[in-house]
Automatic annotation (TrEMBL):
Residues 8-249 form the NAD-dependent epimerase/dehydratase domain. SUPFAM superfamilies: NAD(P)-binding Rossmann-fold domains. Residues 333-353 are annotated as: Disordered. This is NAD-dependent epimerase/dehydratase family protein. PANTHER family: NAD(P)-BINDING DOMAIN-CONTAINING PROTEIN-RELATED, PROTEIN YEEZ. It comes from Pseudonocardia yuanmonensis. Pfam families: Epimerase. It comes from the Bacteria.
């Protein structure tokens, strides 16, 4: 979609989602991008429509520096978010909430008319006990999941957006609520943060090759994913069409049987309290990165209805959840526990990375 020349500022541009968004914006010759991150990549390709700006959101002058970068921009996309599944360390919360405050302050001072915030499926509270599970649209209550620092911080950030909207009614604020984002080049980091030494490479390669006949999974598990490239296209469409409010972005939902089938396995349902207790023990022993908070999100977060994105953005995912899961599995099998690519791995299934 081509229109009048415009400048878009992307905060957190070097991350998984930022990479997908920059790829999508390269397809728009009318868009000039100012990419903001703490450490711009040294090997960034020479592109006259893309400039990199180093800004550390933890510094006292972050809002001042961001305001200078934002001046004259048509829109700002806030993607910067630190994920730390082990414990409740202070630094991630500083980046997430203090960083969001800096972006909002700079948006106000620079007079930017459109703010896009990358939110999450994790802001949707679970169904009430006994209530039939169903896909939920953007009107579903925003409520933090107990025990999940990630969910609490995303909900807190959205509350900050509520206050910003009330104070700045002329600014269009869009909240892109995304499912878990997958891209092959983020697998090393995901393995380091969420798996750790409890999941050996040999098991991941066996799963990749279809040599694990059964796969224990929490009873009733349903999962949605979204590929970073598809999410990037959705955010680019948001920048084009400027919808206010929340927009759910995800691929289809898969149950345990379909997820196990990605690895050629048969699911064995395990009671959720059992899985949670084992996970908690492994986390306390520092052999597994994922916490019970992440487990609660995986099993209790409602499936999202993506009808608004399809109708108003003319968006649909090119990679379904099964394809994204396969991409992730192939990439995980090709890294060691320290996040270093393995020299030899089983052939990957066809698909996008």
């Amino acid at each position: 979609m081509t229109g009048p020349a415009r400048t878009v500022v992307v905060v957190g541009a070097s991350g998984t989602v930022g990479s997908g968004l920059l790829d999508a914006l390269r397809e728009r010759p009318d868009v000039t991008v100012r990419a903001v991150c703490r450490h711009p990549p040294e090997d960034a390709p020479d592109d006259p429509r893309l400039t990199w700006h180093p800004v550390d959101l933890l510094t006292a002058d972050a809002a001042d520096r961001l305001a200078e970068v934002l001046r004259g921009a048509a829109a700002v996309v806030h993607l910067a978010w630190a994920i730390q599944p082990v414990g409740d360390a202070g630094t991630p919360r500083d980046v997430d909430l203090d960083g969001t405050a800096a972006v909002l302050d700079a948006t106000d001072r620079a007079g930017v008319g459109h703010l896009v915030f990358l939110s999450s499926q994790a802001v949707y509270g679970p169904h009430a006990p006994g209530e039939p599970a169903r896909p939920v649209d953007e009107s579903w209550p925003v409520r933090a999941h107990r025990g999940s620092a990630y969910s609490r911080d995303k909900v807190a950030a959205e509350a900050m957006l509520d206050e910003f909207e009330r104070a700045h009614p002329a600014v269009v604020v869009t909240r892109v609520r995304a499912a878990l984002v997958i891209r092959s080049d983020s697998a090393a980091r995901m393995r380091r943060l969420f798996l750790g030494p409890a999941v050996p490479s040999v098991l991941l390669r066996a799963l990749q090759a279809g040599r694990v006949p059964v796969l224990p999974l929490p009873a009733g598990l349903v999962l949605q994913l979204v590929h970073a490239d598809d999410l990037g296209r959705a955010v680019a469409a948001v920048l084009d069409r400027r919808p206010a409010g929340a927009v759910n972005v995800a691929a289809d939902a898969l149950d345990a049987r379909a997820l196990a089938a990605v690895a050629g396995a048969r699911p064995v349902p395990v009671p959720r309290p059992v899985v949670r207790a084992v996970l908690a023990l492994l986390n306390r022993l520092h052999v597994l990165g994922a916490t019970t908070g992440w487990f609660d999100l995986a099993v209790d977060t409602p499936v999202m209805d993506t009808g608004r994105a399809r109708r108003e953005l003319d968006w649909s995912p090119a990679v379904d959840t099964a394809g994204a899961a396969r991409i992730l599995l192939d990439a995980l099998a090709g890294t060691d526990p320290d996040g270093t690519p393995e020299p030899v791995s089983a052939p990957a299934a066809p698909g996008r990375g």
